[in-house]
Design goal:
- The protein is an all-alpha fold.
- The protein is 62% helix and 0% strand.
- The termini are far apart.
Length: 63
Amino acid sequence: MASNKSYVNPNAKSALEKMKYEVATEVGVNLKQGYNGDLTSKQAGSIGGQMVKKLIEKAESSM
């Protein structure tokens, strides 16, 4: 039987959480601990997009 559980390294998960808050500050979005349902799609997308951009840059620089 397949499981929907994700097996993510706890260190990686905490690093991504930290990065999320750093990026939110950089793009000017007030992100708080816990529920952030008051964010617009544009705000949430700008955080995610910037995170992806930074992760790609890190991967390219390590190649």
